[in-house]
Amino acid sequence: MWLEKIDIQHFRNYSEASVTFSPHLNIFLGRNAQGKTNILEAIYFLALTRSHRTRSDKELIQFQQSTLKLSGIVHRRSGKLPLEISLSNKGRITKVNHLKQAKLSDYIGHMTVVLFAPEDLQLVKGSPSLRRKFIDIDLGQIKPVYLSDLSNYNHVLKQRNAYLKSTDKVDIDFLSVLDEQLADFGARVIEHRLDFIKQLEVEADKHHSLLSNQIERLNISYESNISLQNNKSIRQAFLITLRQNHKRDIFKKNTGVGPHRDDLTFYINDMNASFGSQGQQRSLILSLKMAEIALIRNVTGEFPILLLDDVMSELDNHRQLKLLESIDKEVQTFMTTTSLDHLTNLPPDLKAFVVEAGSISRKQVNI
């Protein structure tokens, strides 16, 4: 899979831009705050209908404008596929092959992306919400039913929390009805995640072993506040835990257990990776990104598009080399950087662009 071109209207600091890409390596050069990351964000948004940098859609629309529009042509094994997304105060409109999509889950997955950005280096030591977001984005791209189950779960969760906040005298029978619905969708969400983590662990361990010269093994543990170890089904265990927490939830006026509070723990040679060295943690994140590419390829039959947002400067020469070596020639890659000086082993057919104040121009590079 690769993105042939993208057309941008009123996105961040871009009024209008149209860029045609190489199916292999594309590099965006320029000083900081010129719009390099905004290009990668536009590609990410075209694929996933959301930004990796902000939850506020208003921040994406260019200043003094009311709408934005992104369109692109993605090449898949089945042929060319036009994609389009527009955003206004009325919401999102997504189109696949010029046909409007009723649900976001019908749109997401037509173009898959893996993003590696400096903030990903916080995945090990950062908040649990970062790790849940990591699961949701990857799993949502390869398994559309996961997005549907997660959306339904969040809808019931919102209802349950709103009810707990709205009354001082909770009707236990009504709360139990909400519990049943929450357990239905929540169990499905957890099952999807467990299967995904199992597959991801296998791929990530392979890459981490290579990065560490076969010295270190990587394990990933899914941490749930619902007991998953006994003979009960996940749904049954979730329902029991919800009922056991009724007093707590009524007092706190929110839902204290469920996949919205679950987490991941990474282990290097059975040691919690949050206590590892900075070098070990960076190798772990690099291994995860390589594993994401392999897993998406295994599940969908297509390589995802790789977005590297100013991460080469965060990696030492050894990890830079391993990253570049690991990228399959079939993986279209987009990279932002301030300079090419620190990069080696670049392919001769790359396309380079200079980004300055929201303007993009081609740059000739002698390799």
TrEMBL record:
Organism annotation: Streptococcus raffinosi
Family statement: Belongs to the RecF family.
InterPro entries associated with the record: DNA-binding_RecF, DNA-binding_RecF_CS, P-loop_NTPase, RecF/RecN/SMC_N, RecF_2
Record protein name field: DNA replication and repair protein RecF
Keyword hit for DNA-binding: yes
Stored Pfam families: SMC_N
Described purpose of this protein according to its UniProt entry: The RecF protein is involved in DNA metabolism; it is required for DNA replication and normal SOS inducibility. RecF binds preferentially to single-stranded, linear DNA. It also seems to bind ATP.
Domain RecF/RecN/SMC N-terminal: 3-344
Binding-site residues for ATP, renumbered to this chain: G30, R31, N32, A33, Q34, G35, K36, T37
Lineage: Bacteria, Bacillati, Bacillota, Bacilli, Lactobacillales
Predominant location category: cytoplasm
UniProt KW keywords: ATP-binding, Cytoplasm, DNA damage, DNA repair, DNA replication, DNA-binding, Nucleotide-binding, SOS response
Cross-referenced HAMAP family: RecF (MF_00365)
Keyword Translocase appears in the UniProt entry: no
Localization, UniProt: Cytoplasm
